[in-house]
Amino acid sequence: MQDKPVDKKEILEELSKLHDLDHRYSDGRILGSMCTEAHPFAKEVYCKFLDTNLGDPGLFKGTKNIENEVIKSIGGLLSLDDACGNIVTGGTEANIMAIRAARNHARKYKGIVDGEIIIPESAHFSFKKAADMLNLKIVEAGLDENYRIDVDALKDVISDKTVAIVAIAGTTELGLIDPIEEVSKIAFENNIYFHVDAAFGGFSIPFLREMGYDLPVFDFSLPGVCSITVDPHKMGLAPIPAGGIIFRKKEYLEVMAVDSPYLTVKTQSTIVGTRLGASSAATYAIMKYFGKEGYGKLANEMMENTEFLYNGLLEMGYDVVCKPELNIVAFNHPEIETNLLAEKLEDLGWKVSVAKCPKSIRVVLMNHIKRAHLKELLEDLKEIY
Ligand SMILES: Cc1ncc(COP(=O)(O)O)c(C=O)c1O
């Protein structure tokens, strides 16, 4: 740090130069991100709440009410009245909270001390962080031929140490929905905590289902589901950071509570102490502003773009990994190796993401990728072919 204060203008110029090194969503070239540019109204509201701290909710009662309302509102979308939970920094923190609740619950009510969590091979790496922090062993359940959790493989790995089962509604690499109804039944019958990671799909599946899309049920209407991660900062168009963790029962928050002596509340269940109220306020604002109708329109548009890219790739002879269920398309060239294809696309200015399972180029059709960008992409892929 320098000794003397620096003029604002100079600082802003310096920051602006660094900011210019960033890629911009608006260029339509970022193909693999599950985040996108937040809606301007959500950003406006976010800035108004920058000083609020939900870590000390007695001081920010209004903002705490906003968080409660957002959680109830997301819970409502997921067939749960009186939902509880928190707006957190993202899917990672939401998943860590869910697994912590499951571990503590199993420790308290079943006496499990060296627990295991069962996750599908397609699970996001945040569960590896959760297991590491919470001293749990990860047991992976394999996938079926359609890249969804293999229910028989799952049954095989359940043990008396299992503290949680996880399934995904909108996998990170392929956007697929696990057979959540079947998994819920298994978890319920075995009295095991079941967490659904809908970080990506949570802000589109409910709307698409209402519009008549044939997508499976994944929410609290299934009795085995104990918690769901839903991220407003992905398909919800809220500013980063905004993740959501919704619990079926208050007791899942209670088993995580620690005393918080110097604050305005007696206990705290979240991982983070001081935490932004701005994320809750911005999410509240954008959910009101869009309503189900607005989100439905958005999700449908993303699906139409998905279909457009999918058909374009098939017409050219590219191998598409699976028929998209949500707005992700993963593909390969029949002969060119995936990394080489990714390099060729990068050379043409595309910011490409390579999926691991199966190895493929993965395009997440977010709001910043418009039809014109897709036409350009298909042109470039035609050249490469
Ligand atoms: C299914 C799923 N869960 C969790 C996460 C982690 O979310 P975040 O990056 O917001 O922590 C992601 C991120 O892409 C995801 O796709």
Description:
Helices cover 41% and strands 15% of the residues. It starts with 7 loop residues before the first helix and ends with a helix. A hairpin with a 7-residue loop joins strand 8 and strand 9 (267-268). The chain folds into 2 domains: 16-38 and 292-384, Aspartate Aminotransferase, domain 1 (Alpha-Beta Complex); 41-287, Aspartate Aminotransferase, domain 2 (3-Layer(aba) Sandwich). It is globular and about 65 Å long. It is of the alpha/beta class and 385 residues long. The mean pLDDT is 98. The protein has 12 helices and 13 strands. The structure holds pyridoxal-5'-phosphate (PLP). The site of pyridoxal-5'-phosphate has 14 residues, from helix 4.
What are the main properties of this structure?
385 residues; alpha/beta; Aspartate Aminotransferase, domain 1; Aspartate Aminotransferase, domain 2; 13 strands; binds pyridoxal-5'-phosphate
Describe what is shown at a glance:
The chain is of the alpha/beta class and about 375 residues long. It contains 12 helices and 13 strands. Helix 2 runs antiparallel to helix 10, helix 3 runs parallel beside helix 10 and helix 10 runs parallel beside helix 12.
Number of strands: 13
Could you report the average pLDDT, rounded to the nearest whole number?
A: 98
N-to-C series of helices and strands: HHHEHEHEHEHEHEEHEEHEEHEEH
Largest sheet, spatial ordering of strands = 1-7-6-5-4-2-3
Domains, number: 2
Q: Span from first to last CA?
A: 52 Å
Q: Kindly name the structural category.
A: alpha/beta
Share of β-strand residues: 15-25%
CATH superfamily of the largest domain: Type I PLP-dependent aspartate aminotransferase-like (Major domain)
> What is the count of DSSP helices, taking H or I runs of 4+ residues?
12
By oligomeric state, this entry counts as single chain
CATH architecture of the largest domain: 3-Layer(aba) Sandwich
Largest sheet: 7 strands, mixed
Shape: globular
